[in-house]
Amino acid sequence: MKEIIEIFKNRSFSKLFFANFSSQMGSMIGMIALTFYLLDRFSSQPVFATLAELMYSLPTLLIFFLVGVVADRLDRQKIAYYCDVICFMMSLLLIGAVYIGWMPLVFFFLFLQSGVQKFFFPAEHGLLQGTLSKEEYGTAAGLNQMVFSLFNLFGAGMAVIIYKFFGIYGALVVDSISFAISAILIRSGTFSESARMPNGENSIRDINVTNVLKDFKEGFQYIINFRLLLALVAGFFMLGIVNGGFSVMPFYLLKYKLVPNTYEEVSAVFAAVFGLGMLAGAAFASLLVKKLKYYQMLSGGMLISGAIVVVASFSETVWVFILFMTLLGFVLPSVNVAIGGWLPSIVDRKMMGRVQGWISPLMMLSQSITLGIIAVGFPNFLSIESLFWLVGFILSVVSIFYAVFLPRLYKRVELDMKELLSGA
Q1: Which CATH superfamily is domain 9-191+211-419 in?
Q2: Helix-then-strand count for the chain, H and E
């Protein structure tokens, strides 16, 4: 608790924290409400809900070579601010597109908004890394995990309530307001020049083809030559499959197997209980991170999570399913806190944007492939249970991969750091 109080005394961190909270909360409400809207309007065509998720992930594959370079070369504060402003305008345009009722236009604006959002997070992460000390990264990761838990606890419930009482338009209005609040907080923050522009001052004219390719190549070489980072990035690709599956799997299981007539209400209960599990798990993980190594939390958390996912697929009642998902919610934060605390502590501040520029597209690539398989295969070729089996298997594979390789790579980095310090 003392560490949390101290970190919030940093006003720059506080504004970044609440800006990120506002942006993600509104975006989550808008996305969940849009999923419900598509499932209601096109009940016999679940492919539309999957397509909406694809519109969220596909833009990364088109702009991934730009995202990290922009975050490392331009003013990160301005990038985050203008991303929020543009997303605010896109939310308003989405309201108009839904009103017209032409789905290609809805997907188009969703695609554009998602593309702009992809520039926000590397810039925000870079600002955060330049605002905190290495000792505070673990605490910040725990706080971010608790925020994510609160999203699961209240986000889906709020989305259902807003959607039920105010419709899709009300949810999209909340979405737009959240981006506006985030933009105001980012703009009012005071960040050091080294946090905003760790590579010196550059202009938009410097973001040309030659420099983009050069920086993108440097980011690739940095990851390839840093074996510990390479191992983590490889695991992120597999985790993208998990994210893609879980973005739609629980809703499908509830609607098409367990409670087809009341899946919206049960989804809110499921999300709230899952969020409670994650909130408790985040608090536990914040304590665990001081007792265990990062790689122990990663491999152990993934192995237990994979087992829970497989067992949950055999649930015959909604309450049994919710119980297993609550257990999953308790375990997952240990994975997220470990990753969130480890990455900024090993990545050079000047390279953070370019590293994030590689991680995001790799995750989105595997996430998009997964969603594409679900869109084509479900329910004609794939059962909902088989989707859970696939995700559980992947979690187990990544767990074994981490358990074998990360300890020796961790020791190598520790040894290199000691040699560097002794030489200095």
Answers
A1: MFS general substrate transporter like domains (1.20.1250.20)
A2: 17, 0
